[in-house]
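Hey, I'm writing a tutorial for new members on how sequence and structure tokens pair up, and I'd like a real worked example in the thread rather than a made-up one. If someone can provide the structure for the chain below, I'll link this post from the tutorial.
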Amino acid sequence: MFLSCLFDSIVSPVFCCINFVIVIVINSLGSVIEEIIATRLVP
């Protein structure tokens, strides 16, 4: 019981952090891709 509680208290914040990083990466990738498309399409 104690171990699972400890595990939970460690894993939850780490998971939250990873999720946050993934969202930021996807957002920045999206804007980069949009810029590339815009510069390619517009001469």
